[in-house]
Amino acid sequence: MWVRRLFLVPIVLGFLALAAWAYFVRPVAPPDARLACHYGAYEFDGGRVAAVTPTSGPQSLRITFLDGQTWRLDPAPGDDTLFGMKEGWTDRAWPGDQVTFGSCAAGTMTIEHHGPKFLTGKRQTLDTTDATFESHGLKLAGRLVMPRLEGAIPVAVLVHGSERDSAILFNRLQYLLPASGIGVFVYDKRGTGKSEGSYSQDFNLLSDDAAAALKKARELAGALASEVGFQGGSQAGWIEPLAARKANADFVVVGYGLAESPLAEDREEVFDDLRTAGYGEDVIAKAREITDATGRVMASDFTQGFDGLDAVRAKYEKEPWYPKIEGEFTGDFLQNPNWLLKILGPIFDVGTSWEHDPVPALKAYDKPHLWILAGRDSSAPSANTLRILREVQASRPNLDIVMFPTADHGIIEFEEKNSERLETRFSEGYFQLVADWILFKDAKVQVPGPVVYSGKAAAPSEPPQP
Fold first, then answer.
1. What is the pTM of this model?
2. 385 and 317: one domain?
3. Which of 4, 133, 174, 441 is the 20 to 30 A CA-CA neighbour of 333?
4. SS3 for 367?
């Protein structure tokens, strides 16, 4: 038996090395360069605005309207100008729905949607300036995108989430915001796209990068910028408040982030899954013992806490709810032996600031600040974040909060089928809210559904003057 186990060790290690290579290198087919001329902001009949960006597929595109509608565009065989349409991130398509692009020089597109309904769009002309800037000795790649307008306008530095893709290629807001009268500076985070360095989730380091990006944006925009701030989603919620004080940002916009630590993100995902499965607070209390144990292992960089992990495994492994535990990492910890975690953990370590407390930075930032939350967020459950932000808001009347109650992570709407979520579109009003708030610093939503917690309303009223 031991001979067999020893024989299996190099095989297992080989698979681990292969998995690490696939995870970190992740070779994917780049977007088709022939389609790059179609990327951009388009204005359609009736004033509708959309962004066309590449997808992770080699020849596919995605169109996203400012109102949140979005389709994946897949090329027709043998025709570089004709594309079929699939709703959201589903495989749902309707016969006859298609998009036709004009020549690169023409910059036009026509959408045929549900029969005889046509939309014709024209690509807008935006001024773009590619640049590099330095942070901790690395050269990072960025791009300033400005609409052709008279006078100074706000500029938003687009801060990344945890993705490993090039933001300069894929971030749709570099088109949607300029089409709404806002300049943007988009950059590839370290270790992605054209930026140097290794991918990292060290929030202090990444906030230094974001602060350097904002400094570069101010330099490039000059007198054309009335103010320069941050906009980003998910992991950006930890990075932006740190960077805002370092760079003296004029505003901060965070979408679907957390006002808790990354360890809390794992914990709340576990609790959310168990509640969805019908378990009550008695089970949640037991699950908390498990997430506390897995959190200690993770925060120690896989050097401590394994005795405690063994103890909760033995205590609860026969419980009916135990196999349902997932989370960011807790489910994996429960399903794999300690020796494997000790090998695999350091291989996949990217310096994540697991115990980062975002509240001090939130309280310290005293300029206009907007948080947008998803009420049914499966990746970053938002209930505790809403509570924390409301507490901060009492002393920060320039902090606005908007909750999209039916949205998942990314402020994406979905349908449920066989316990699976089919993502269909971005929430109506989301992109317009981001643009309007940056322009006017007033949290107003023009569609029914979202819940607005205005900072002005939360602030205690001043006593009457004698």
1. 0.90
2. no
3. 4
4. coil
Q: Is residue 12 part of a domain?
A: no
| Same structural domain, 398 and 330 | no
> Which of 302, 324, 348 is the last residue in one of the domains?
348
Q: Letter for the amino acid at 221?
A: A
CATH code for the domain of 141 = 3.40.50.1820
> Exposed/middle/buried for 103, CB within 10 Å: 0-12, 13-18, 19+?
exposed
Residue 77's pLDDT band, with cuts at 50, 70 and 90, is confident
The verdict on 85 and 183 lying in the same domain is no
Q: What is the pLDDT of residues 174-208, one digit of tens each?
A: 999 999 999 999 999 999 999 999 999 999 999 99
pLDDT at 29: 61
Tens digit of each residue's pLDDT (9 = 90 or more) over 104-144: 999 999 999 875 577 899 999 999 999 999 999 999 999 99
Give the pair of three-digit tokens for residue 322: 């135990």
Three-class secondary structure of residue 324 per DSSP: helix
Tokens of 276: 């969805």
Regarding whether 209 and 168 lie in a shared domain, the answer is yes
Q: Could you read off the pLDDT of 278-298 as tens digits, one per residue? A: 999 999 999 999 999 999 999
Which two tokens mark 264? 């809390």
Euclidean distance between CA atoms 424 and 90, whole angstroms:
7
How are beta strands 252-255 and 225-233 bridged, if at all?
parallel
- Give the separation between CA 204 and CA 246, rounded to whole angstroms: 11
Nearest one of 258, 257, 250, 259 to 438, comparing CA atoms:
250
| CB-CB contact of 247 with 172 (8 Å) | no
- State residue 63's pLDDT score: 97
- Which structural domain range is residue 406 located in? 127-261+354-458
Say how many domains are in the chain. Answer: 3
Q: How far apart are CA 430 and CA 271, in angstroms?
A: 27
**436 in a structural domain:** yes
- Give the range among 12-16, 162-166, 407-411 with minimum mean pLDDT: 12-16
Sign (positive/negative) of CA torsion 265, 267, 268, 272?
A: positive
- Report the side by side order of strands in the sheet with 225-233: 127-135, 138-146, 183-187, 153-159, 225-233, 252-255, 369-374, 399-404, 451-453
Give the pLDDT mean for 235-241.
97
pLDDT at 96 over 50: yes
Q: Which of 123, 149, 168 is the last residue of a domain?
A: 123
- Other C-beta atoms closer than 10 Å to the C-beta of 359 total 15
DSSP 462: P
Q: Sign of dihedral through CA atoms 145, 150, 156, 157? A: positive
